[in-house]
Structure formats: structure tokens, C-alpha cells
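Here is one chain, start to finish.
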Amino acid sequence: MRLEGIDLLRGIAVVAVIFYHFFAILDPVNNSIFPYVHSFGLFGVSLFFIISGFLIYRSVDYSVSQQGVKRGLLQYANHRLFRILPAYYFNFFIVLLIATFIIESDYFYSLGFLKTILSHLTFTSYFIYKDSGLGINGAYWTLSIEMLWYIIAPFLYIFIKKDKYLVLLFLLSFMYLIGIDISLFDSIFNLDVNASNYTLLLYYLSFQLPGQFIYFLTGIFIYKFLNNPLILSATSRYVLSFLLITVFIFVTSHYNLHTKFALNNLFILFIVSILFILLYRSKPMKMAFIEWIGKISYSLYLWHMVLLYIMKKTAILNFLSIGMTSALFVIMLIMISACSYYFIEEGGFRLRKKIESKFIIRKGI
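Its structure:
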């Protein structure tokens, strides 16, 4: 059963991330509003991870329950791969083409560049290089985390039968964030507290899967224990959701929580979880556009930084006003992402169904 509220949540999440990156990359106005924008961006990424925790565990549960372990896992893997790979590899091909014009020729033909490409093809770039996308599409870092989650989720479903062990994993993830706060990993990862990039490296550690596990696991907890719809009107849900986002942006931008990793993530988790619970079973009849944005959110996420990179390289703000630049960016991004969804993503869906009917269902694997 498709949950329309999930598309609404995806729409909110992707708008938050794109809004943040627009200001971070193009820097169109005075930096005084940037703390608010940065807070909104963090909100979007965390919401995506809770959505993934919920949907991926739900997908494993449905496939294994309907098909048995072997066929169910094959069906699950088939769904995930054809959901992610076609649009990602097409996007990376374009990124690679752009890179040929900006990367020095000596490095372009080096072993290091080949390793970088392989790391992107295998979704391991963020774990190895602390950045992603050949300097063109930094959005790839979350896909490294997501892909690792796709692999781990079936193991949790099959081998962890007691919920108390999921709670233990949640606590371990939170303790990992506390460990970053108290500099527990400085010697392990050879971090210098006096280095100019020390805080940035701590952020890098916090965004690895152990630190983000609390969000994925929360998605699982909501799936397992909070399946009953809330008795609230649609208007109440939307008003409460707006207030939650407003409170979140105000608190995280006015109180310095960003470098307190355990407290910051706990607060983000609390707000984002409530938002998810409020909206994931809603039927957004009057928010069809945001729901559609959620539907094409993966393509929007893949393409927005590529487009912003090109706009920055061409110094577009020297030629157009901020209003014209914003309008052009939104129009181009929606057009490109819609084409990516309807031609690339949906093409992957059709191919998936063919393979599924031929090799999994028909042959009874």
C-alpha cells in the first residue's frame, strides 16, 4: 500500500536540502540569514534518513513475508537496485563529463582518479575521501550512507528478532555521538584538536552510519509500533508540522547546538520523528504539488547540486538578479528532474518488473 504522506515528507525534505544548498553554493545574500538556512538543511537530511529507515524495513518485511526469505530478499534487492542505480549512474556519467573540463589532465589519467571513479561507482566515496561527487555533486555522500543501510536492513530483519537488541543498537549509536563530543575518537582517527579542520572532521565522523543509525532505527520503531493513524484533522497536522519546523529552525539557529553532536542529533531526531508521525499517514489532497515534488525527489536530489555548480561556475549572479536566478534555477531543476524521473527512473521500474517476472516469479526462485 502506497502511503501518500511519505511523498509529502519527501517533498519537505528535498525542498529543505535544496534551499540550503542554493544559499550555501551561490551565497546570494548577506550571511546573517544563513544559520536559519543551515538549520533547515540539516532538518531535510535527517528526515530523509527516517523515511529510509521506515520504508526499507517495511520493504524487507513485505518481500520476505510474501515470498519467503530467499525469493523475498531477491525481490527486495531487485527493487532497491533498480530504484537507485539507473538515475544515479546516468547522473554520475554527466558529472564525469563535466569533470573532464575542470580536472587537470595529469590527474585525469592517474591511478588516483580511477580509484575515485570506482569509489563512486561502488557508493564508497564518502567513506574513503570525506567528500563526494568530484567536487561537482556533493549530494552523493548521503547515497553512500543509504546504500550501506540497504545492505544492513535485511540482516536486522532476519537476525534480530527481539526489539531490545534494536534498542541496544540505538543506544550504541547515541553513545558513538557522545564519544565524538568527548574526543574519544581523536587518537583512533589521528585528529589534531588544534587543526583548522578539526570541527569539520568531527562532522564527517558524526555523519557516518554509526552516528546516523539513530534515524534509521527510529524509522523502524515507527513502522513496528506506531501503525495506528493519529486522530487529528488534516489542518491540525499541517499547523503542528509548520510549528515544529519553525521551532526547530529557531532553536538550532539561536542556540549553538551544532558542535554538540549528541544533543544536536537528539533534538533533531525528536522534532523530525514527530513530524514524520504527524504526516506519514496523511492524505495531502490540497498539497498535490508538494506530493509530486516528493515523487520526483530522488531526481531533484541528484540534479540540484550539479545545476548549482554550473550556475556558480558561470557567475550567474553577475548577470541576473537573485529573483531571476532563483526562478531560472527552480524551472530548470524541475524540468531536468521530471525528465530524469519519467524517462530514467520509470524506465528502471519497467526493467525491474520484467526481470522480476522472468527470473524471480516465473522461475520460482
